[in-house]
Structure formats: structure tokens, C-alpha cells
Write a structure and sequence with these properties.
Radius of gyration of chain A: 22 Å
Helix content of chain A: 25-40%
Number of domains of chain A: 2
Number of strands of chain A: 16
Order of helices and strands of chain A: EEEHEHEHHEEEHEEHEHHHEEEHEEH
CATH topology of the largest domain in chain A: L-amino peptidase D-ALA esterase/amidase
Oligomer: homodimer
Distance between the termini of chain A: 21 Å
CATH architecture of the largest domain in chain A: 4-Layer Sandwich
CATH superfamily of the largest domain in chain A: L-amino peptidase D-ALA esterase/amidase
Largest sheet of chain A: 7 strands, mixed
Structural class of chain A: alpha+beta
Largest interface: A-B, 68 and 67 residues
Strand content of chain A: 25-35%
Shape of chain A: globular
């Protein structure tokens, strides 16, 4: 359904100097589809990543974290679809290592300079030999102008490829930020997974990049929810190739670069929600006036995760009771509900512990009938705020997820 | 749909000496339906209750908690359907007080000796005057043999009335325990609510009863989940009329009485899940070998609340990846997933971080095709265990909740 999501124009995706991408058909699960992406990074690249917190994290996630921590300088990223290599125990680690060794041979680096990523079915052995066999074609395809094709190659249940670019002006000159993502909502641990790779040609220290990747994730991928489930393979990786020669080191330069990265990441994160399974609405949930960002996020997620609220959004039903009950369930023990104000877009719908006297239900229904709207809760107990993006819960969500494997 | 749920046989519901029930048609929301239940308690009764933790708790909940705490001895319970008197601010408290005053006049007690309960639409003014006007008919109907009719009178979206009885033999003689409940799964804060009232003719001190009500709730109503939403009006009240003259004071007597109360409460709690909106399956989730009951419950609820797991249950799809991913998401930071064993009924399906080598998928599919089955996760890190009962997530859940108000 993909609410308000259009195909990225290839010409709008700027190449990033020092980063080449090549795709191939490795036949991981199905023949005749591009299911392998290789990214070759210049020797001066720094890389940082954030990964799923699911305790059942997949073999490639374990190896990617280990190789990042080893700090030998990452030279290649390898991503396959069709098989998640998750829930595969020791054998899964061996197979992911085999893929890294194949990439190392192809690129002329060490195996611990490669980060592997997998997405697809869970608990099936990864056909590592087919992936290794496909690497030659991926190497032959390596080009800087390959972002649109790469976005398509990492799709699984996505209906639209997700990619975006921005440029930022730093003191030393202009730099480019381009990224891709996949995921139809973190909601299919066995066939979905959220993956995102964003690269810049700025030169950034490893330490600064690690801060940037965490800050960016907190503003983008950590603010989305389709159904509250988290994949075993989720990963977001930030690459700084340094190939532009423009150094981002001062606070001002890092802020400008961070802003461009955040713009790309927010677009990609929102694209995942817009492409959420069965989604017919894109909803921004904004919580203001909290004592901390954490409590604002808890309230926002309590709304975003409530199946009752999400089915009401699907029905364009301004069911205030469900939203207020979700807020009351957020686990904030001393929340004074009589001080809360609730808005649907610009309409004040609830205040003083009940419906606002001026509110007419057709105003709420009109707001919710739109494909995109904002639910805003003002807690009136502090200065903090948080935003979460989510989608509705439709018949098609159940249909897609109930019939998926059959 | 009501999985495996049959109408309670009125003859199987034993009257409880010292407790009379009367119903009436008060026209709270619709004409010609029994929407008012009055319970008159003998003068020696002790009463204890547990209530919703939702911060948007309804006006009657606030008053019921206050009157229980006042400790003047509760003489009457009044329950209306059709209107929840929730999200109604100060005016809602005034209207609930008016109802208590009407009951006090009818029963010849003080207003703070009455506990009010409401369930139905939210954010609408309670028609207190119509309820008060209906009290005369309810008083005229007061009888000890009215439990089946009472169970029906408190239904809202329930498809089957919920009631159960047990007898227990104490040192001083036999006592009776009878209870009723309503709720189609805690899942409609504006029209559902879980309410349960269980009475015994044993004589129990207020302090012992307060322990019993908490212990019982933890074994029954706190172990169920339809969709993780909690109503603004949830309440479970335990009444000990003392009218049998049999005192429950010794540890052995309190244990015997507690066991009978727990049996009734578990039946009622399970009945709510079996009657869950759109439910086609009744699922027991058992988590064993945890370090604490709390962490076992967190794992069990992570499974029970995952929309992905619930849609797979609906489809009879033994999708192990979804269950394992839900366990991995339970927030237990040091969980060693390679030590976990997962069973579908008696079939060992996963161990050592992956699928069990002997497991054949048609075994899992056969287990999940049944209307009732058990998912058992053994964490192998301690001695604690916990059980949660839940249902699946079907097309009808979305249909019922999306179309409810339209």
C-alpha cells in the first residue's frame, strides 16, 4: 500500500566518492533475482553501526559487531536477501564466516575487515557457497552510481525501494550523504528485518562516527513502529569514506553533517513505516511537556503499539477513549491525566480528564480520514518531547502475516 | 467465537449465604435490557478488591477504592453496563456518588458503604438518575439464587455469560465460593472492561481477604492477555459474607479456601480469553526455568503480545522464528538463547539456538491446528515459572474493533 511513498529517482541519488556498490543474482532462495549486494569501501573509510537488541540476534549480526569492534578498518559490506542466517547456532557463524572470507579474497583484504548482513527466512542454513560463487559477478558490477539498484537488491517484503541523498556544506567544502534501507516495518522476523546503510564522503574519525550513528538512530530508526516486534537481524551502518578530502571534525561541521545524515535517515525510517504491511495511514505521534524524553517516548509507544488504537486509525474512528487509555497504560505512575491535552492534528479533543467541550466528533473523524495525520499529547509536567512514526492495523496486516508462509 | 466456552448451568451455581443479587432494566444506554446489578451483602461481610493500574481510571474506580479504604464495612455493590463513566472528570465523580447515595437509601446504609462499578461507553455523562430510578426494581429482585442472571446482566461485548462455583471443606465445615465475570479480553477500553465479583460465605478477616484477593488475581486475572490493552475500569472484588458461620483463619483453612477461590477465578479469567474478540484459539504460554517469576512473566507476555506470533497462531503456522524473536525481545539482557528449549505441546521444536534436528514441521502444524494448545519455553537458568493464557489475532479482531463504533 505504501502510504505516500514514491520510487526514488536514480538521478536524485548522488554517488559517494570512495564507495562502490555491485549486485548479483546468487540464487540464495530464488533464481533470477538480485539477492546479493557488495559494497567496497576506500581504504580511508571509517564505519560505525547499531544493531538489534534482540537476544536472538543472527549470526551475521554477531560477526559484524565483532569485526567492527576489532577495529582493523572495514573494507567491504556484503548483504544477502532470501536467508537471515538467524536461529542457526554455531553452524550459522561458520557459514557467515565463509562468506566474509570469500569477500576478503575478492577485495584483497582480511576476513575481519568485512561486515556481513543477511535478511530472509529464519532457521534455514545459509547457502554460503552460492553467495561466494555470486561474488565475482558482484565485483564486476561495482560502481559508484549503483545506489538505486542496490536499494532494490536488498528488498524482501518491501513494495518500494528506499533510498535518499543530501548534500551538506562544511567549512572545507561540500560533502555527500546517500543511504538505502529495507524493511516493511520490522515486523517479520523471518522475512523482513530493517537494514540501512548510509555513506558520506566526508572524513570523520571513528569516535565521532560512533556518536553520529547512535544520535542518528535515536532520531530516525528508533522512532518507528509498525507492530512493536524487533527483528533478529536489524542493523544500521554509517560509512565515512573520507574520499572527498573534506574533514568533519569541528562541532559546526559535525552538526552540519549530522543534520544531512539525519535527514536521509528520517526519510528512510519513515519510508519503512509508509511501506508497513497492510498500512493505509501514516501517523505521527508527538508527545510534549514530559519530564524526560524517555517518558515521552513511553507514552508515544504506548499509543503506537495499542492494537485498539491502530484498528481505530484504520477505521478513521476518532476513538478518544482508546487513545487516553493507552496513555494511561504507559506506566507513568504519577501521571496526572486531568492536566493532559490531546490533539488530533490541530483540533483539541480532550482536556481536564475528559472530552473538550468544544470538540465535535466530525472534526476528529475528518482528521483521521486523511492518509497522514498527527496525534499530539501534551502532558504539562515538563519540557521534554518525543516523536514516533507509526501506521494503522488493517485487515491486510492480518492477511499478510497469517498467510505468509502458507 | 468463544473457544471451548459453554453457558454456565444455573443449577451449578451455588448461592452464597449472606449475598443477594438483583437485576433491573435501567435504560442506561438501551431500553429493554438488564443493565443494572445490585448486590446486597450481610452486615458481617468483609470485602477486598484490586483495580486497574491505568492512570485514566474511571470515576467509579476512584470511589470504590476510596470507600474500601474508609473501612466502614461494605453493604452494597452496584454495577451498570452501557456507560463506563470514564474520562468524565469531576462531573463523573459527582454522578457516581449520586448512584452510591441512591443505593445507600435503598439498602439502609451509608453512601461510603457502597462500591460502584461501571462498564460501557467512555467519555459520556453517566445517566445517574436513570440508574437511581432503576434501583427499586433491582431491590425487589434481590435473591441468593440470582448468580446466572447477574452474570448475564453485566455482559457488554461478551458472547457468553461467565460464572462458576466451588465448595471447600474447612475445619469448621463446608463453605461456598461463587463468582461472575465479564470481559471479552480487556480489549475495548470504551465498551469492555474486565469486572469480576467472587463471594464466599466463609468468615474471613479483612486483612486475610486482602491477601487472598491479591494472590488470587496474580494467579488468574493477571495472567491473561488478549491484546495487552488494559481498561480504565478493571476491577476484581472478593466478598466474604461470613454467613456460613465457618471461620477461615488458620493457614490450612485459608489455603483450602484460597484454592477454591483460585479455581473459580482461573475459570473466569480463562473464560474471558476464550471469549476474546475474534479468538479462534485458546493458548497456554508456560515459561519455566527462569531466575524469577517476573522474568518468566515478561517472556510469556512478550510471546502473548506479539501480533506476529498471534497471527501465526491464527493461521496454525508453527512459525518458530516469530516465537524465538519474541522471546529475544522480552528485555532480559543476559538471556542465553542457546540454552533455551521450546515446545509446542509435547514436541521439542527448538534447542541450542536453532531448530531441533528431530523436529518435523508437520508436528508443529498439527499442534497449532487444535483449538487449544500450549507453548512451553524452558529458559534453563533458574527454578521459577509462570503461565499466561492468551488467544490468537484474527481477521475478526480487526473487523470487530475497526467497525465497532461505526
Amino acid at each position: 500500500m505504501a502510504v505516500g511513498l514514491t520510487l526514488p529517482e536514480p538521478a536524485s541519488l548522488f554517488p559517494v566518492a570512495g564507495v562502490e556498490l555491485g549486485v548479483a543474482m546468487a540464487g540464495v532462495r530464488k533464481a533470477n533475482r538480485r539477492d546479493l549486494l557488495l559494497m567496497r569501501l576506500g581504504a580511508e573509510s571509517t564505519v560505525a553501526g547499531v544493531f538489534t537488541r534482540n537476544r536472538f540476534c543472527a549470526a551475521p549480526v554477531i560477526i559484524a559487531k565483532r569485526n567492527l569492534a576489532a577495529g582493523s578498518g572495514i573494507r567491504g559490506l556484503v548483504i544477502n536477501t532470501g536467508n537471515a542466517n538467524a536461529g542457526t547456532g554455531e553452524d550459522g557463524l561458520a557459514r557467515a564466516t565463509l562468506v566474509c572470507e570469500g569477500v576478503a579474497l575478492s577485495l584483497g583484504c582480511a576476513a575481519d575487515q568485512v561486515l556481513p548482513f543477511s535478511t530472509g527466512v529464519i532457521m534455514e542454513p545459509l547457502p554460503a557457497e552460492r553467495i561466494v560463487a555470486g561474488l565475482a559477478a558482484a565485483v564486476a558490477d561495482l560502481r559508484a552510481h549503483n545506489w538505486a539498484v542496490a536499494a532494490e537488491a536488498i528488498m524482501t517484503t518491501d513494495t518500494v525501494p528506499k533510498a535518499a541523498s543530501r548534500r551538506a556544506r562544511l567549512a572545507g567544502g561540500e560533502v555527500t550523504v546517500t543511504g538505502i534501507a529495507k524493511g516493511a516495518g520490522m515486523i517479520r522476523p523471518d522475512m523482513a528485518t530493517m537494514l540501512s546503510f548510509i555513506a558520506t564522503d566526508a572524513r570523520v574519525s571513528r569516535q565521532a562516527l560512533e556518536t553520529l550513528v547512535r544520535e542518528t538512530a535515536d532520531k530516525s530508526f528508533n522512532c518507528i513502529s509498525v507492530d512493536g516486534d524487533t527483528s533478529t537481524n536489524d542493523a544500521f551502518v554509517l560509512v565515512a569514506s573520507g574520499a572527498s578530502g573534506v574533514v568533519a571534525q569541528s562541532g559546526a561541521d559535525l552538526a552540519a553533517l549530522g543534520a544531512a545524515i539525519a535527514e536521509v535517515a528520517v526519510l528512510l525510517a519513515q519510508a519503512i513505516v509508509r511501506d508497513g504491511e497492510g498500512a493505509t495511514k501514516f501517523i505521527t505521534i508527538r508527545v510534549e511537556g514530559g519530564r524526560s524524553v524517555d517518558e515521552c517516548r513511553r507514552v508515544a509507544y504506548a499509543i503506537a503499539h495499542s492494537p485498539l488504537v491502530k484498528t481505530a486509525f484504520f477505521a478513521s474512528d476518532p476513538n478518544l477513549g482508546r487513545i487516553l487509555a493507552a496513555i494511561g497504560n504507559a506506566g507513568i505512575a504519577d501521571l496526572d491525566v486531568s492536566r493532559l491535552q490531546l490533539y488530533l492534528d490541530a483540533v483539541l479533543v480532550a482536556a481536564n480528564g475528559g472530552r473538550h467541550p468544544d470538540y465535535m466528533e466530525d472534526q476528529g473523524a475528518a482528521a483521521l480520514a486523511k492518509p497522514e495525520f498527527t496525534v499530539r499529547a501534551v502532558l504539562n509536567r515538563g519540557q521534554a518531547a518525543a516523536t514516533v512514526w507509526t501506521c494503522d492495523l488493517s485487515f491486510d496486516y492480518v492477511k499478510i502475516n497469517a498467510e505468509y508462509r502458507t
